[in-house]
Design brief:
Length: about 140
């Protein structure tokens, strides 16, 4: 397979480097599902809203693991299944994603933040982030300990 040209091969720009990792159509949606929707298994991610294909999901999960945003562990109930979870680098994307969500809600007519999330973000975005990260910590304590 030919090597894909990466921005990092030709540019020192931090945004270009970030786009090499998270700039495709699917990566941030997978991170969203791990971060906000409590989906941690391949099959759960495959059945998410947008209908990602199996080959794309497999490739993006592999890339996310290679770039250090996601890790996987064997599923406790089956050695053929894995649990995927965000690393600290992956969790740090919550702030980036919230800004993208706000921008999209304001500038893309068809994009809508679910009302319960919109209210939380309006009142105290820092508290929203704290709750999201605490929920992930509880999941990790239960499944990775």
């Amino acid at each position: 397979m030919p090597k894909l040209l990466c921005h990092s091969d030709t540019s020192p720009c931090p945004l270009a480097h970030a786009l090499d990792i998270i700039g495709d159509r699917w990566t941030l949606l997978i991170v969203r599902d791990l971060l906000l929707r409590n989906l941690h298994e391949y099959k759960e991610l495959l059945n998410s809203f947008e209908g990602i294909s199996t080959n794309i999901l497999t490739d993006r999960l592999r890339r996310l693991v290679q770039t250090g945003l996601v890790k996987s562990v064997p599923h406790p109930e089956s050695k053929t299944r894995k649990l995927y979870y965000l690393t600290p680098s992956g969790k740090a994307l919550v702030h980036v994603m919230l800004e993208i969500v706000k921008w999209s809600s304001e500038h893309v007519g068809s994009a809508k933040i679910p009302p319960e999330i919109a209210a939380q973000l309006e009142n105290d975005p820092g508290e929203f982030v704290r709750k999201v990260l605490e929920k992930l910590e509880r999941w990790e304590a239960e499944h990775l300990a």
